[in-house]
């Protein structure tokens, strides 16, 4: 079978070019080869990028039985566990997804907005004029705390810190999953595999202790955090989730939800600070009427121009016609989020950061895909959007920041996400007092 044309050269070099500058490289390949192109990645197999919204809609809707998405994430199983929604496919994936979705519905997430603002206010309270901050690192601390409180339902500062230490130690050693299983073996205390196993055991012990305590909690039926809702959830056969499943989903939500959101926040602030007038325009809108519409538009425009995930991924288990090409089984199809969202026919002047485009009217579906789509669409999308708008609301209304570097951070690959290379360093130039809560509502 003939695959769509794409960049030539050794797979190792193409993979290196992508890893060094994922955004620029994909944009260059798109310009050269058009909406459908093939890239033979080293270690990841042959991938076909698709940047046409109609073809992506065809792929993500209708019968999904010949497409796998969980399999591509299976290298994360040692951390996330076999019950994680991210690594499952087929009926097992649907069961977990049906249990997970209700706690993340918009109406539930609205209840977390005050909590998100409170966490953001406490962060900004610690900022001092003249201080240098790396925004991505500060935002990571903040989004961790939000997940801990809203998803895990843990608010006691001592337990939050204990979870932070144990869980970030596991997530930060995720690169060990990229080396072969033999090298990963637990060969004792000083081996990398041994250290990883120890960290994982420590994190699991804390997670299982939280789950056990919550099962016993007298107020379980009144609690609104995601873990408590999951403990009360039942599938179609009336079965609840096991401790193992709960542990796997808790760590999955943390892994999928905290760095991604922190990176999006760092990108948003960088774009606001580097686009003349935008930071002040948002601050004025918040001061005038709360700024809901502009905050939402800024979040959407950030995720359009700087999506944190470059592409969704589906592996074909049977031959399938995609964007006019007959593709064989085994090929990975990448709906190219980053490329669709830079199409000049959908977004005039696509390289410009212009939140107005989202104030002026709706966007065609499958033209804005930062959270992917179909039966694998991001479970935490509404929570992430609430975090983006509420944290930005607090930061822009209270802090004045100046970028440290002359030029915007290049976009690089961090794990599987696109991230600003230096984490967006800024200097705090002014910090205002907290605004009264009604003015922020
Ligand atoms: C700005 C922040 C975020 C971005 C850009 C993002 C993006 C994505 C993308 C692109 C996918 C894959 C969709 C697909 O394959 O079609 C995904 C899946 C997922 N995300 Fe997010 N995400 C974010 C935040 C979150 C948060 C806050 C949570 C939970 C607390 C979360 C939980 C998940 C889960 C569980 C999945 C797997 C869904 C499935 O396989 O059925 N994400 N996300």
Automatic annotation (TrEMBL):
- Pfam families for this protein: p450
The cofactor required is: heme
Stored InterPro entries: Cyt_P450 (IPR001128), Cyt_P450_CS (IPR017972), Cyt_P450_E_grp-I (IPR002401), Cyt_P450_sf (IPR036396), Cytochrome_P450_monoxygenase (IPR050121)
Q: Which UniProt keywords apply?
A: Heme, Iron, Metal-binding, Monooxygenase, Oxidoreductase
What protein family does this chain belong to? Belongs to the cytochrome P450 family.
Q: Report what the protein is called.
A: Cytochrome P450
Its source organism is Paraconexibacter antarcticus
Q: Taxonomic classification, please?
A: Bacteria, Bacillati, Actinomycetota, Thermoleophilia, Solirubrobacterales
